[in-house]
Write a structure and sequence with these properties.
- This protein is of the alpha+beta class and 205 residues long.
- It has a single domain, classed as Alpha-D-Glucose-1,6-Bisphosphate, Chain A, domain 4, CATH 3.30.530.20.
- Helix content is 36%, strand content 33%.
- It has helices at residues 8-29, 31-36, 41-54, 74-81, 87-90, 182-201, and strands spanning 61-70, 94-99, 110-117, 120-132, 135-141, 145-156, 159-170.
- Strands 1-7-6-5-4-3-2 form a seven-stranded antiparallel sheet.
Length: 205
Amino acid sequence: MTELTPAAVDTASVDVGRALSALLRRYLVNARDAVSDLPGSASVVAQVGREQASAPEETSMVAVKRSFEVSKPVSMVLDYLQDFARTEEWDPGTKSCTRTDSGPIAVGSRWHNVSEFRGRETELEYQLKELTADHLVFQGDNKTVTSTDDISLAETPAGTRISYRATLDFHGLAKLAGPFLQRGFEKVADDTVRQMADVINDLPG
């Protein structure tokens, strides 16, 4: 899946860049006070808890996971989702997504995606990394973030269960913003699931 709109990374990078010097000085004096003074940090600290405190190398990554059912068979869902250009239909944050190569969709197929988050746009180059009868993995890259959308499909009596995991792995300065973006992307994930389910359930056939 989106692609859960990593456009937020550009905004975060700008904000972090402006505050970096002051933040580092305050961190050297008292790291806990420095973090607690950041906007929204109280909710972030409560959310990530001791795991991130003991494993700071993981704070540059944001991951969301959702599982939901649709009324269409696995084969139809796979056929629909394997064309990443259709994120224009099911991903609320995608403004445009265009195939940049040709031929049948297969591992290695590529797309150019433009997404928007809070009024900011970002562009990623996506590639289909895995494609089986019940599993899709797309990876998008730019200089700030690597976005991975991992989609598994399972047959159910009513149709298909979609298990979706989206991961954003930040690079460079943007790593500092990772922990503060989790809550925003949780909401993006909820919006994406609702829209994807509606679009797939309305497919003809």
